[in-house]
Every structure is written in C-alpha cells, then in structure tokens.
Amino acid sequence: MTTTFLISEAKVRSFTSLNNAVDSELIKNNIRTAQDYWLQNIIGTVLYQKLLSDVDSSSLTGNYQTLVDDYIQDYLLYATYYETLEDIYLRPRNNGLLRPNGGENSDPVERDLYDMKRQSIRNKMDYYGQRLTEYILEEDSLFPELQQDTKLYQQLPDYSNKYKNPFVMRGGYFLDMAREYGIRTYDRRYKQYPQ
After folding, report:
1. Could you identify which of 40, 99, 128, 129 might form a hypothetical disulfide with 109, taking C-beta atoms 3.0 to 4.6 angstroms apart as the criterion?
2. Extended beta strands in 33-150, E state
3. How far apart are CA 68 and CA 170, in angstroms?
4. Which has more pLDDT, 164 or 36?
5. Nearest to residue 80, comparing CAs of 164, 135, 11?
C-alpha cells in the first residue's frame, strides 16, 4: 500500500465540500484508495509506479509534472471525494448503517439523497477520467511506460471499450486468418502479450 500521494489533503479540502471537521486520516485513506484503485486502472501500474517514485525523490518534472498537475490531480480530487462520501455519510454500527446528525445521535440514511450526491460526484470523476484517458492516448509518445511490458500481476492502462477492437473471435479459422494477415490479436486475459 502506497504512502505517496499525488494530491494533497489540503487540495482535496479546498476544492470539495469536505470541511475541516472531516478526519484527516479518513481523507488520506481515500486518497490512497483513489490512487491505487481508480487511477492505476487508467494509467497502468508501470506509469503509476514511475510517478510515485518521482514524487518520492522530488524529481517530478516536464511531461510527468504536466500529467500530474493538469490531469491526474483533477481526477483524483473527485475520485477521493467519491470514496470519502461513503465513509462520511454511512457509519457501520452494531445496528446497521447510520448517518450521524451531530452529537451522539444518528439517523437512518435517506438512500435517495445519498445516491444522488454520490452520482453527481461520480459524473465529475468520470469526466476528468475521460479527459485524462484522452490526453494519455493523444500524448502516449511522451510516456514510454505506457508501452512497456508488464507482469501479469500489474495492471495495464484501461482506455475503456471505445478504444478497443470491436471484433471478437473465438478461435478457429477466422482467428488464424487474422493472424496470417498481420492483424494483432489478444487473449482478453493477457492483453499485454499479442499473439
């Protein structure tokens, strides 16, 4: 689990409605979750680890600095907020999930309001995720880590279905013909290894 953050707690507080009453550890844990779970899925493990290493060594510059400052932090802002909402509004207790109302009292959660707020944040997160994805696709030559081979336990960048080949071949004659004519094919379990 990483201890390096690509966005600060102060920035999350400044640009969201998370006020100073929200526990710092809660926000930090959700920054970590947003990075490990959401961001790594978009940019892949190799680039993700490069960025963390550069931040740790204070050597983040150039294209990587632009990527983090202009694209990743916007995405992480809403991914962190999205993850934090669940911990703020819903507290697991012995008698179920409750919403704190101040003091020691709690009310049952009004599911519609919670879902509406969380969906609003998810929409913003998806917008910035798409923006990040499009930037990486357009500028992939600036980030050689996107093209590096990965280990099976590492994540590849996921550019969503609209950037993948729409043809599905289950093997046999058509798959053999595609390979014969030089069309790169992939096993969906091991996308990083063209066949």
Report:
1. 99
2. 91-93, 96-100, 106-108
3. 39
4. 36
5. 11
11 half-sphere exposure, CB direction, 13 A CA radius: 15
H/E stretch holding 122: helix 111-138
DSSP string, 36-59: IIIIHHHH-HHHHHHHHHHHHTT-
User: Quick check: 42 and 129 in contact, CB under 8 A?
Assistant: yes
pLDDT tens-digit map of 99-157: 666 556 666 557 787 788 889 999 999 999 999 988 998 888 899 998 777 777 777 77
Domain boundaries, the chain: 9-147, 165-195
Contact 143, 51 (CB under 8 A): no
Q: Which of 29, 4, 31 is nearest to 16 (CA)?
A: 31
Farthest-apart Cα atoms in the chain, separation: 70
Place of tokens 């920054």: 31
> Would you state the structure tokens that stand for residue 133, as one six-digit string?
């994805």
User: Do residues 117 and 164 lie in contact, with contact meaning Cβ atoms separated by under 8 Å?
Assistant: no
